[in-house]
Inverse folding.
DNA sequence: TACATAGTGTTATATTATAACAACTAAAAA
DNA sequence: TTTTTAGTTGTTATAATATAACACTATGTA
């Protein structure tokens, strides 16, 4: 019920591109997506970017802004791309979507000095993942 | 004393570019910076990007990742670009650096499910600024 | 059917960013 | 003072990321 936004009917291109991103263990860049779907008939950057835009809009994927890369949403609590948080390992570049009720609550209610509240946010944490910490 | 990072001696190019960004009321993009400093002898993108990289590194400016633009640091509490937060108006694109002790404390101490803490973060809030709210 | 809305395919181009290399400069170590 | 070193500079070329514009097609709905 709260997952309405997951139930869009994807078009052919959107589905091809979503499936690729969803299967990937790390974020994918637009042109790497392009190379990977050319055998499926998607030939031009714009076809990729249009699908990406739509998928971001409906919350099926997120853009990792600091990396210009895209990752599938694995967090049912991020409301249609409006509130996202990620951890990024600075060595292996592993990206994980953070799903913390406390964090989302804190940020959703955050007010600045003027008392402004915001409708949307994106947070990126940087550091070392567990594996890289041990090396 | 806590401002050590503000006291780097900037080189000529770094100074020219920092001054431009610092005087600007909104974030500036790399190529718009380039056009604005060509009369001062900075001719190539790389000269701009190198200065920007250095200025980001020493915390005199920040990159607004979602906009690919650069803004001067006006927040003595953001420790050398390691912990940054901004509000971005989706209509007029005004960007303000948020300086909230509560927020920085909360995020600096945030631990994910595995208990990982992170050394760095960047947070971007989106919404309407006061002026645009009233329109 | 016919209408509106969204998506497609295509070419061209704009925007953002880095590689590689030779030369220069300032600061400090010898 | 000379030498070394690390950092910066200037330059050309190119890579990587993203959008404009336009004609056409599919799909749902009235």
């Amino acid at each position: 019920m709260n997952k309405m936004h997951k139930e869009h009917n994807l078009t052919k291109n959107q589905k091809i591109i979503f499936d690729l991103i969803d299967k990937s263990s790390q974020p994918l860049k637009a042109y790497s997506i392009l190379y990977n779907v050319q055998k499926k008939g998607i030939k031009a950057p714009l076809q990729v970017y249009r699908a990406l835009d739509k998928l971001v809009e409906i919350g099926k994927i997120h853009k990792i802004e600091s990396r210009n890369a895209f990752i599938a949403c694995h967090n049912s609590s991020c409301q249609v791309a409006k509130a996202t948080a990620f951890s990024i390992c600075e060595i292996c570049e592993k990206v994980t979507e953070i799903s913390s009720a406390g964090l989302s609550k804190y940020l959703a209610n955050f007010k600045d000095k003027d008392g402004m509240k915001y409708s949307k946010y994106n947070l990126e944490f940087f550091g070392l993942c567990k594996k890289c910490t041990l090396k």
In short: Residues 11, 29-31, 45-46, 49, 68 of chain A lie near DNA strand D (CB under 10 Å from a C1').
